[in-house]
Specification:
two-stranded antiparallel ribbon; 9 helices; mainly alpha; 198 residues
Length: 198
């Protein structure tokens, strides 16, 4: 969401929600997002949750341009974004992974879970990117909703030591996105709560 807001040129006031301290379960945060998840964006007198919904709202209200080309290309771009946001991210969400570890009585390690499911998802995304004509970003020559979803997922993959060498199109798209100042400014290290280390 921070990447999209930066690309849209919108200033925002972040409210830190420390997931490691379970602040997402607090009444204060649940008043913003009843799911107790992040993100939540207060804009235009409403609160919008879910990253894809926020990004598409910014696009549809003319604040950012995150979908390009023909209806076919836009549908394919949405499919890439959803493959990341709805297939990789939920399975590799810390709460899901920790539940799997706890339920396995130690037969599954957190690192094993992540290094199993992240590569499976990235392999599919790599194949999907191969369906697009040449371009420096995921879906062409302009940054899109797919890149906005991919950058944080690759950051997560690196955190867990996933080997990214098989995913040349993914690495190229992320490298192109990370050259943009708005993407660099949105890096998670710039938004760590005081005292939190990764």
């Amino acid at each position: 969401m921070r990447i999209a807001l930066g690309l849209a040129g919108l200033e925002f006031e972040p409210v830190q929600v420390n997931l490691l301290e379970c602040e997402h379960r607090s009444a204060a945060h649940r008043s913003r997002n009843p799911q107790g998840l992040v993100p939540a964006l207060e804009i235009d007198g409403i609160v919008i949750t879910q990253s894809l919904a926020i990004i598409e709202y910014l696009h549809e209200t003319g604040r950012g341009e995150f979908l390009h080309g023909s209806p076919k290309i836009r549908a394919m771009t949405r499919a890439v974004a959803q493959a990341i946001a709805m297939e990789i991210h939920p399975v590799c969400n810390l709460s899901v992974a920790r539940h799997a570890v706890d339920a396995s009585d130690g037969s599954i390690a957190l690192e094993s879970w992540m290094t199993t499911f992240i590569p499976r998802g990235l392999e599919a995304v790599e194949a999907m990117l191969g369906l697009f004509e040449d371009g420096i970003f995921c879906c062409g020559d302009r940054i899109s909703i797919a890149d906005i979803c991919l950058v944080p997922q690759v950051y997560n993959a690196k955190r867990w030591g996933v080997d990214l060498s098989p995913y040349g199109l993914i690495r190229e798209a992320v490298a192109a996105a990370e050259k943009l100042p708005q993407v660099r400014a949105a890096h998670p290290d710039n938004f760590k709560p005081n005292g939190v280390r990764t």
